Amino acid sequence: MVYIALLRGINVGGKNILKMAELRRVLKEEAGLARVQTYIQSGNVLFESSEEKSVLRKRIEQVIESAFGMSVSVIVRTASELRSIADRCPFTEEELTKAAESSVGESLYVSILQEELPGEQVEKLHSADFGEDKYVILGKEIYLLYSNSSLNSKLSGRLDKLGVPATVRNFKTLNKLIDLAAEMEQNIP
């Protein structure tokens, strides 16, 4: 099965610097993953395995800590789960167009969570004012639509305080990962 491991906080702001070639080598040799490939420098890893997601997540986190001395949260999804995330985008074309016209850079993101948010965290999000920025919680994902910039958003700041391991990707990256996963699935030996 093709999986995608999303590493949180890799190569951001000069912290947790990790060379992708070295990460690929370690995940092949020490974690025993097959056909490992990475996409850009922000910790997107595609690979094949017949093991369960929870086992893979723990192993990847342990191997990274052992090999590189850094504790990193890892979120693992199957290729079909990633496709489902993209397909379930809750925002209308009109909302997407309006945000894209007013935003500096990307406007559509998804926060991919290790587990569903507890009810009290959902309530805290619902009670906050994020201006024109929008979010929708669907299971273990929070879809984010920024009206100006993700960098200056109160919503972005709040996501780090939810108490559930998560990592955020823009939809451009998400769609590229989906394409790469589809290529891997078509070329399974």
UniProtKB/TrEMBL annotation:
Coiled coil start-end: none
Transmembrane segments: none
Pfam families for the chain: DUF1697 (PF08002)
Protein name: Cytoplasmic protein
Taxonomic source organism: Paenibacillus woosongensis
